[in-house]
Amino acid sequence: MARSITMGQYIPGVSIIHQLNPRFKLLTLVLILALLFLLETFGALVVSLGMALALFAMAGVPFKYLLRGLRPVLYISIFALIIYFFFTSGGVVLFRIGFLTVESEGGEQGIFIIARLVVLVLFSLLVTLTTTPLSLTHGMAYFLSPLQRLGLPTEEVAMIMAVALRFIPTLMEESQRLMRAQLARGADFETGSIFKRARNLVPLIVPLFVSAFRRADELAIAMEARGFRIGAKRTRMQDDLITFKDWAALVITLALIVLVLIFNL
Amino acid sequence: MAGQSAAIIESKDAYFSYSGDGEPSPALSGINFSVKRGEYVALIGPNGSGKTTLLKLFNALLIPSNGEVLVKGISTTEEDKLPEVRRSCGMIFQNPDNQLVATTVEEDLAFGLENLALPVSVIRKRVKATAALLGLEMLLKQPPHLLSGGEKQRVAIAGVLAMEPDCILMDEPTAMLDPAGRHSVLNTVHALNRNRGIAVIHVTHFPEEAALAGRVLALNEGRVVADGAAKKVLTDLDLLHKIGLQGTTAGELAALLRLGGCPLPSHILNNRELVDNICTLAQNN
Ligand SMILES: Nc1ncnc2c1ncn2[C@@H]1O[C@H](COP(=O)(O)OP(=O)(O)OP(=O)(O)O)[C@@H](O)[C@H]1O
Ligand SMILES: [Mg+2]
User: Fold this and answer.
1) Are both A88 and A204 inside the same structural domain?
2) In what order do the strands lie in the sheet with B199-203?
3) Which residue ranges make up each domain of chain B?
4) Which among B58, B50, B1, B65 is positioned nearest to B34, based on CA atoms?
5) One domain, residues A67 and A193
6) Is the same domain home to A111 and A195?
7) DSSP 3-state of B277
8) At what angle do helices A42-59 and A22-38 cross, to 10 degrees?
9) Do A126 and A251 fall within a single domain?
């Protein structure tokens, strides 16, 4: 149940990819995404797909997570493919439906775009599946930290996001429990007009909010009890460790970009 | 002065009311007591008697409206010493779900240390050592929502322990746990108290848990109504009944047996003692 929520769900592991510094991981990811947009040939794309899969294997992420992460891309892909097939001209005419013609150029372009999207999503998934949401938010906060000089509380925002991420599964569990409790009392969330269904959700949402606020209150006290103070100086265990592996990942990515640029891959 | 320096927590005529001064019945009135290094104190009392409020005074989450609370000689009103007070007196709450902050156990153990702004190398070392001490190594990379209730409470204890506290304040830490979870949490805390000399103040509604403490403090309507050895306070059934509490099952049973004419001693606290006494009686007859 709560185990099956993928959103930013971290899969514990001890691989090299898990160990990389989140800042370097994010930076490398951005570079790889840029690299994917530089690619021009199918061959290079296939190679990058192979690399993504190899990295997944290295991280020891089960195959099903990869498929689950790709599911949302499926619909976009089908849509994009249709657009490209019908509205791009050039190449050999494959077939004709009424005034629409389907030409090979469009097909090729469509498949290329989708393949690129898939590889792109795979690399992003690799990062979110191997980095704890907390590290991820702190990594992002690091890159946003110049904004602190403008008076924006990036540290606090990162903390808020991290705590929110921590509580998503808990709140999901709770809403499912409430829903079952209401179902047992004869509530009906599935039939009737949209207004009726919305009204039936009220007994679900009110207690959920009440409990969420109570939780927030208790959590704030627990955080304070453990010495958390807004604006006080803190250190972070995760992010400060930069090793040879981090630099290696960055240098390899940069080298690949240079390679792609030089040889027009 | 030696005796005074051994006190971790001192409460000097402390008052507290939630709705400002002059309220007819403050949550706490005139609390005088101190906890020495390495003591294990059970705090009992009916609902609303002020147990949680008192714990919060010791952790500087609340400041007494009158009187004073000292943690290792530091008054909790001293803003700039707050981190030291919070480090020295860690607090464990009742609901295991609402006190773990981070997305993995490891990050949660580090949370308090990060708040102390310790160097990263120290934090890593302490997280590892604490996890090893409480047998949590296997769980370090787990997200909290996948842990059992007992495991969550042990993680919460570890989070406090990592800060090398002098005292652990626990507010009904086992109330939401099943017997197995309760057992593992109690064992963990008692071992820490015995082996590391960490003082414990343990709020509980279970007389059997209170009976394991060296000392028991009973609150009623914001006042201390009893303070002494567990044997003494928990066998004073008249007092306990008067404030709406009960003794241990064995103690209550022994009292009934005495009423029925069975010559049992009045200091019986746990099942073992009750059984032993009854067996001796049976043999003598
Ligand atoms: N946040 C608050 N605001 C106002 N009054 C409060 C607050 N928290 C507690 N009180 C009141 O203070 C008194 C003591 O409450 P406290 O929570 O300390 O009792 P307790 O002994 O911990 O009870 P329980 O066994 O139910 O946990 C009660 O009368 C309660 O109604
Ligand atoms: Mg309470």
Assistant:
1) no
2) B89-92, B167-171, B199-203, B40-44, B215-220, B223-229
3) 2-229
4) B58
5) no
6) no
7) helix
8) 160
9) yes
The verdict on A17 and A83 lying in the same domain is yes
Residues A46 and A125 in one domain: yes
Same domain, residue pair A60 and A109: yes
Q: Which of A170, A219, A233 sits opposite B101 (nearest CB)?
A: A219
- B178 token code pair: 């099943």
Which domain range does residue A213 map to?
154-230
Cα distance from N-terminal residue to C-terminal residue, chain A: 44
SS3 B116: coil
Closest CB from A219, A225, A237 relative to B123? A237
B107-127: average pLDDT: 93
The CATH architecture of the domain made up of B2-229 is: 3-Layer(aba) Sandwich (3.40)
Residue B82 with chain A: CB contacts under 8 Å: 227, 229
Residues in chain B: 285
* Burial of A2 per CB tally in 10 Å (0-12, 13-18, 19+): middle
CA atoms within 13 A on the CB side of A253: 21
Q: How many domains does chain A have?
A: 2
For residue B57, report the distance from its CA to the centre of ligand 1, in Å: 13
- Decide: B15 and B67 in contact? Cβ < 8 Å: yes
Percentage with pLDDT > 70 across chain B: 96
Residue A3, pLDDT above cutoff 50:
no
Provide DSSP, B142-187.
S-GGGS-HHHHHHHHHHHHHTT--SEEEEESTTTTS-HHHHHHHHH
Q: Is residue A215 part of a domain?
A: yes
Q: How many CA atoms lie within 13 A of B180 on its CB side?
A: 3
- Find out whether A106 and A84 touch, Cβ atoms under 8 Å: yes
Interface check A133 vs B, CB under 8 A: yes
Structure tokens at A32: 């790889």
Give this prediction's pTM. 0.77
Enumerate the residues of chain A whose CB falls inside 8 A of the CB of residue B163.
226-227
Of chain B, the end-to-end C-alpha distance in Å amounts to 55
Report pLDDT digits (tens) over B134-188.
Answer: 889 999 988 888 899 999 999 999 999 999 999 999 999 998 888 988 998 999 9
Q: How far apart are CA B242 and CA B223, in angstroms?
A: 14
pLDDT of residue B3: 42
- Which residue reads 């990060």 in tokens? B114
- Closest chain B CA to residue A172: B145
Q: Is B52 in the pocket of ligand 1 (CB under 6 A)?
A: yes
Same domain, A47 and A171: no
d(CA A21, CA A240): 8
**At B9, is the secondary structure helix, strand, or coil?**
strand
